[in-house]
Amino acid sequence: MKNIRYICLLLCVLGLVLVSEGVAQIDKKASKETKALYKNLRKISRSNILFGHQHATEYGHGWYGDANRSDVKSVTGSHPAVIGVDFSGLSGRPKEAIEKTKESLRKNIVDTYDRGGVTTVAWHFANPASKGGFYWVDSVSANAISLIKVGGTHHEQYKEILQTIGELAHSVKGKDGKLAPMLFRPFHEFDGDWFWWGKSHCSKEDFVSVWQFTVSYLRDSLGVHNFIYTFSPDNNFTTEAEFLERYPGDAYVDMVGMDNYGDFGRYGKYNLEAAAMKLKIVSDYALKVKKLAALTETGLESIPNTTWWTETLLKTLQTEKLRLAYVLVWRNDSRSPMHYYAPYPEHASVADFMKFYNAPYTLFEADLKKIYKRKFLGIL
User: Fold this and answer.
1) Sequence-distant contacts of 219-223: CB under 8 A, at least 24 apart
2) Neighbour tally for 269: CB within 10 Å
3) Would residue 320 show up in a list of annotated catalytic residues for this protein?
4) Which residues of 303-316 are buried (b: 16+ CB within 10 A; e: fewer)?
5) Sign of the C-alpha dihedral, residues 368, 370, 121, 258?
6) Where does residue 249 fall: left (phi above 0), alpha (psi -120 to 50 degrees), or beta otherwise?
7) In a domain? residue 258
8) How many domains does the chain have?
């Protein structure tokens, strides 16, 4: 009997090892810390979710540039587990401004890594072939995806922009001398029309080609091995086939996600059943192909619904059996009195946010312990 129990236990352990080692990360030369983060995010997603906030430590409601500050920390005592930054300032500007932005990003990313938090990177990429910025502006914006692809008129310029990103990626060394991993999320919300890389402004084939080149050039030509590549459309899908319509392939994606404000109360419209259904499509696909999954952007501007955190967000995240690594809400503008997505001290939703914070399911930076180590110690 003891021998049978021993054999069963051994088979169970071997099975867990195989599941752990089966994680489909696309960079075989990824740094140890990046590999550890990838696997640990997958472990965490089995029972918990990390909470994230865009630009959380750069600025907040009524303040800018304060050391070791975030509105979330001012409310809870902990920074978010995931801090969002943006590569928007790394192109289309004078060299001096780009270098200044690089240094600011480097410090932010390193500080988050040294504290044990996680950095996710959005890229509001200014159109490299025309005016108009990152938004699509009729009669101004160029269909730049077709121009920056291999063989396009602006391809060499695009390579130079990626070289700037690569230089930053090689510079973010923490106190331990290791490079900080980042969840890199290029060309997000591509199924909408508001960005110049949106669905109606480029073909599927060109979009996929540019995505694949971006990953290959950063990883294989520039030797960037501290990125986890994240694919995140907006919420314009109801089936897996629609979700994957512009998917560049499993060999070019580490994490799948979606941005979804529309189902979570934007303009007073709630469709939590649809939100849960779409999250299940994302989560199920990630499980099927051994990827990570996340709710990469959401939120309710100004948070007029004071129980939004528990009755809308938390309830939806726990409606289905989902495996999501993180959820991120958008930024708190330092100047606008209305453009914010996380509570600040004395906001009307603070009490509900504290319930969200104290829920066993949600994790913040103070909950994490050695997330960049292979021998992950779990949560505090």
Assistant:
1) 219/26, 219/27, 219/29, 222/162, 222/163, 222/166, 222/169, 223/166, 223/170
2) 10
3) no
4) bebebbbbebbbeb
5) negative
6) left
7) yes
8) 1
User: Among 161, 40, 50, 184, which Cα is nearest to 95's?
Assistant: 161
CA distances from 235 to 223, 240, 260, 309 (A): 33, 12, 5, 20
Q: Which pLDDT score, from 0 to 100, does residue 129 have?
A: 98
Per DSSP, 1 falls in state -
Q: Is the pLDDT at 33 greater than 60, yes or no?
A: yes
Q: Which of 189, 301, 311, 320 is catalytic?
A: 189
| CATH code, domain carrying 179 | 3.20.20.80
Task: Count CB atoms within 10 A of the CB of residue 346.
Answer: 8
In a domain, residue 325? The reply is yes
Residues 13-40 as b or e (16 or more Cβ within 10 Å = b):
eeeeeeeeeebebbbeebbebbbbbbbb
> Would 376 be classed as within a structural domain?
no
Query: Residue 375 pLDDT > 80, yes or no?
Result: no
List the catalytic residue out of 33, 58, 297, 365: 297
| Across 191-197, average pLDDT | 98
Q: pLDDT category, 294, cuts 50, 70, 90?
A: very high
Catalytic residue check, 245: no
Least confident interval from 11-25, 187-201, 211-225, 325-339 = 11-25
Give the global pTM: 0.93
Tell which phi-psi region holds residue 298, choosing left (phi > 0), alpha (psi between -120 and 50) or beta: beta
Nearest residue to 370 via CA among 179, 42, 116, 112: 116
3-state secondary structure of 320: coil
Structural contact between residues 26 and 339, judged by C-beta atoms closer than 8 angstroms: no
Q: Give the model confidence (pLDDT) of 91-127 as tens digits.
A: 999 999 999 999 999 999 999 999 999 999 999 999 9
For residue range 210-239, list pLDDT tens digits in order: 999 999 999 999 999 999 999 999 999 999
By C-alpha distance, which of 131, 229, 224, 178 is closest to 371? 178
Domain with 83 in it: 2-367
Residue 174 structure tokens: 């923490």
